[in-house]
Amino acid sequence: MIVEVINTGTELLLGDILNTNFQYLSQKLNENGFDVLYQTTVGDNEQRLLDVLNIALERADIVITTGGLGPTRGDITADTVAKCLHLPLELHQPSLDKIKDYFGKKDIAMPANNINQAMIPKGAHILKNDVGTAPGMVVKTKNGKLVILLPGPPNEMKHVTTLQMLPYLEKHCKQQAIIHSKVLHLRGMGESTVATKLDDIIINQTNPTIAIYARQGEIIIRITAKSPTLDIAQNLIAEMEKQVRERLNKFIFGVDDETLAKALGRELTRGNYTISFAESCTGGLATSMLTDIPGSSNYLLGSVVSYSNMAKSKLINVKQETLDEYGAVSQQVACQMAEGVRNLFGTTIGVGITGIAGPGGGSDSKPLGLIYISVANEKGTVWEKNNFNGSRSDNKLRSVMAAFSLAIDKLNELK
Amino acid sequence: MIVEVINTGTELLLGDILNTNFQYLSQKLNENGFDVLYQTTVGDNEQRLLDVLNIALERADIVITTGGLGPTRGDITADTVAKCLHLPLELHQPSLDKIKDYFGKKDIAMPANNINQAMIPKGAHILKNDVGTAPGMVVKTKNGKLVILLPGPPNEMKHVTTLQMLPYLEKHCKQQAIIHSKVLHLRGMGESTVATKLDDIIINQTNPTIAIYARQGEIIIRITAKSPTLDIAQNLIAEMEKQVRERLNKFIFGVDDETLAKALGRELTRGNYTISFAESCTGGLATSMLTDIPGSSNYLLGSVVSYSNMAKSKLINVKQETLDEYGAVSQQVACQMAEGVRNLFGTTIGVGITGIAGPGGGSDSKPLGLIYISVANEKGTVWEKNNFNGSRSDNKLRSVMAAFSLAIDKLNELK
Q: Region A102-115: what's the mean pLDDT?
């Protein structure tokens, strides 16, 4: 079935925000066997949205909109879809109750204009939104096409897509072929090295296909198969995965929605281990990323952001002589941070990160992007020197990835 | 003049890559006074691209394509544009020489299929590409519209846009108007409340226009003016800003690329103040976001991620009786965290955050999303209770925003 996605919002046309909603939707729809052949962006303007809807309904079987379901005057999607399909708007009482309840929980009276969010085209099926006030909707056209309205804020769009829209489509739309992917996550190897190792496989790829990406400091390999059934697709992928693993197995740490943080969390859980961080240049990012994982309170006992030398010496016992002799950005200080924080919290391993994230603070001997990482366990302390060359936030992220990777190595020692 | 951008490429429709090209182009075009009213994505398919081009030429004065100018079979843009405009393709010798030269410099013989990149619709004006092999082009239609073809790789697209396309447009298209925007950032008020306060202004808006968005836990108001000169636009915006500030001034903390973290950093710098955080459910995110700002080492002395009760009592002196009587998620513990971390690092203010980010750990009396925030300074300690209802990472982000906001309030006390 042919899908067109219409992303509404003047902020998209002004270039204020990047259209991440479309990437998410197109990935999910393709995975579920829908052919996304068109995507259109249009502003918060009734006539233009109406024109775009009419064109989409001519060339697609399913038209999915994002945005324009909020409480303000600029939010015109439900109203315009109703006009396009010649349907009246009517109040959906359960949605209104839900919105009132949402404000009630915050001890706030519902502003009058939020009632608009409960006005839906007559006969629309509601896609419940438990993380915001705007419900999604499915409206059927007279000739059996579907118009699906999703909220614009990415977290709400994702929530409604995964929990409501995809199950609805699976129930109501028959698919001829499905597209299935498996993602392998690698650490300790660069993108072009991975590409070289797989070059002869990639040249001859037809079904499944292989693609290699660098993302958030990790390398991922995506294997994608298209076939009539999930079983066949999974078999095709399994054969290809075998070939890839024959060459790169030791670099692969996880599959699908695995991340390095999750892999570290799993290693910690496996051995009933605990961890603590002493973060300098990463400023708490390592701890924050590890605590993004539900259940991390089982293994993360605590961390210290030792941004100042005072914090380093007072809290985690970095020696003043070491700071004086080698400077705060040094392997010696990184190691004392890892050991100090491990002692402070009494954890299985302690991680220390110190460096110069930039843009200021670099020198000839200690350039921007110089980051020392250290991990201490009962068997001893290791350290690693990195030279990154990205922006401040990029260098922070890469440092965290390198620290997670070294921590996994150090946990494996304890097996 | 009305612009439509057509981004071609099956990889966009599969969701393999994010459409950053459109954001860049729309920003540049808007800055230069062009109205980007439509954007379409279509795959590498001749018939569909032809249909999309025809629709675009009906509703826009300038149609800009990206992608499909490479040497492979999937690269069909120049050919399809020629078909659409009933023009023959012809060899452009200077472009062919340039491509041969490009390969020559790398000591590689030009692959035969690269000759396709020098085949251009008859009469096209060439937009030189010094960073790749695909030249850009401008083709005029019989009724005076422009079709502009840009290469797809972002670095080449940016290069050709800035150095070739924009100067061409400036020379050949008379602009009646430029579009200028100013963004106001608000805290302490929800999107719909802001909308209600500005409702009568928004109803009557023509030029400048006002739009309200929620983004990353902040509310922003964008005022956009269209006028013949920048001066006039700025005056129009200033008048509107005055009206907005008459109603909402105390909620506005910054303009344009300001963020709440930057605003907090500025307040800290202004008074030569220092700050420290005791973070529980936010797991280091507050500290990490503040340290994303270059120069934050001037005011951030350190932080503690007190994920375990042990960390709370050992490091920042939260009393065991308080933990026993009220639990770790309570106003009492939040206040002791703020005071304890302030004492530990000797900072002007200390911030404590404790709560249940989810998805697990909630109960009837302490539901998911219940977050206590506290800020201590020499004059005393304040606290705030929040009930958020997002995902784990969303609740973390909103908690950080609420904490930054309360910290700014508490710094203002010291003025």
A: 81
Q: Name which of B398, B329, B324 is nearest B362 in CA terms.
A: B329
The reply to whether omega before A294 is within 30° of 0 (cis) is no
B111 — pLDDT class (breaks 50, 70, 90): confident
Single-letter residue type at B97: D
pLDDT tens digits, B305-340: 998 888 888 889 999 999 999 999 999 999 999 999
Query: What is the residue-wise DSSP string for B30-98?
Result: HHTT-EEEEEEEE-S-HHHHHHHHHHHHHH-SEEEEES--SSSTT--HHHHHHHHTT--EEE-HHHHHH
Instruction: Please check whether residue A310 touches B, CB under 8 A.
Output: yes
**Cβ–Cβ contact B50 with A under 8 A:** no
Is A300 in Cβ contact with B283 (below 8 Å)?
A: yes
Residue B257, phi then psi, degrees to nearest 5 = -90, 20
Looking at the DSSP bridge assignments, the partners of residue A125 are A138
* A396 Cα to chain B: minimum distance (Å): 9
**Both structure tokens of A386:** 């990195």
**Chain B residue whose CA is closest to A298:** B308
For the ranges A312-316, B105-109, B131-135, the maximum mean pLDDT occurs at A312-316
User: Which chain A residue shows the shortest CA-CA distance from B212?
Assistant: A72
Rounded Cα distance between B182 and B177, Å, is 17
Assign B299 a pLDDT band (cuts: 50, 70, 90).
very high
Check residue B176 and give its pLDDT: 64
CA gap B390, A216 in Å, rounded:
23
Cβ A124 vs Cβ A138: under 8 Å: yes
Name chain A contacts of B16, Cβ cutoff 8 Å.
211, 213, 222
CB contact under 8 A, B301 and A294: no
Among the partner residues A14, A39, A159, nearest to B26 by beta-carbon distance: A14
Inter-chain CB proximity A302 and B302 less than 8 Å: no
- Which of A102, A113, A311 has the CB atom closest to B196's CB atom? A113
At residue B244, what are phi and psi to the nearest 5 degrees?
A: -65, -45
CA B40 to each of CA A12, A24, B43, B163, B271: distance values in angstroms, whole numbers, following the listed order:
12, 17, 10, 24, 50
Q: Which residues of B touch A279 (CB under 8 A)?
A: 284
Which of A253-257, A260-264, B400-404 comes out lowest in average pLDDT? A253-257
Task: Assess B245–A contact: CB distance below 8 Å, yes or no.
Answer: no
pLDDT value for B110? 78
- Please report the pLDDT score of residue A216 as a whole number: 64
Those of residues 150-209 in B touching chain A at CB distance below 8 A are 181, 190-193, 195-196, 199, 202-203
**Which residue is listed with tokens 């995975």?**
A31
The answer to whether residue B118 scores a pLDDT higher than 80 is yes
B384 touches chain A (CB under 8 A): no
**Residue position matching structure tokens 């200028």:** B180
Q: Whole-angstrom Cα distance, residue B121 to residue B89? A: 4
Domains of chain B with bracketed CATH? 2-172 (3.40.980.10), 178-255 (3.30.70.2860), 260-413 (3.90.950.20)
Poorest-confidence range of A235-239, A259-263, B217-221?
Answer: B217-221
For every residue of A191-254, DSSP letters joined together read HHHHHHHHHHHHHT--SSEEEEEEETTEEEEEEEEEESSHHHHHHHHHHHHHHHHHHHGGGEEE
- The pLDDT assigned to B192 comes to 80
- Å from A24 to nearest chain B CA? 7
pLDDT for the residue A228: 85
User: What is the predicted pLDDT for the residue at A385?
Assistant: 94
